[in-house]
Amino acid sequence: MGIVLVSAAVAVGLILFGIFGYLRTYPPTVSAVASSTQPNTVNLTMQVDGAVGTGPHPNWVGWYIKNGAGKWVRTTLVQIPERSYVHVTVLEYDSGGPLRNEYWGKVSGTVGGSVNLNGKNVSVLNGSSGNGIAHTIVAPGLNLAIPVWGVNGNASNFCQAGPCSPAQAHNVETFTFYSGTSTHSYRWQCFIPCGVGYLNGNGGPMSATGYMAGFFKVVA
Ligand SMILES: [Cu+2]
């Protein structure tokens, strides 16, 4: 009887440890910043790194979002206002490669149907060419799909651990999407997938909020 009680107590303890551990590591939400020049527009600046460099999984691939004070916050939770244009700037520091499914090389859901990659407008990226595609930003509920172009992983200034800085090899990709007319939390994630080493290619960072999966929280 005693051993059963002890086992039960240990089990409860482990569950609570797990829950609080999860809460301790759950990333914060960062708000997009209102544009000072354009009405109904917010600016969102993000970077994606091959290794985030901090937190419980410093070697995992993941995102940082710039907050209103200009500080990089390791998270994938972004708050944006409804009925607004979200002007996104992605700083991409990770290496890329071919897609498992070329469909994800197509841009969708942006104003104009394209992204601006290092100064050039493109609507499809071919992951089988050049440095390939590093990650994608896909929010099915917003009809948004963005392939993000990779950098050369052998570059001498390749960023080994985030948060990365502009002196390191990176691409700049910008696009604008509309946040819609309803308040809703839209899930987004990377559909490369870049978690090849994990169960079904969708474990580890792929399924983890704060790394390759997150939410666009559209608020009133
Ligand atoms: Cu990814």
Summarize this structure briefly:
With 220 residues, the chain is mainly beta. The chain contains one helix and 14 strands; from the N terminus they run αββββββββββββββ. The chain has a single domain, classed as Immunoglobulin-like (Sandwich).
What this model shows, in words?
Helices cover 11% and strands 34% of the residues. The protein is mostly beta strands. The chain has one domain (29-219): Immunoglobulin-like, CATH 2.60.40. A hairpin with a 2-residue loop joins β8 (115-117) and β9 (120-122). The longest helix has 24 residues, at 2-25. The chain is globular, with a radius of gyration of 19 Å. The N and C termini lie far apart (56 Å). Bound molecules: copper (II) ion (CU).
Report the mean per-residue pLDDT as an integer. 92
CATH topology description: Immunoglobulin-like
The amount of beta strand, in percent, is 25-35%
**What is the C-alpha radius of gyration, as a whole number of Å?**
19 Å
- Percent helix among the residues? 10-25%
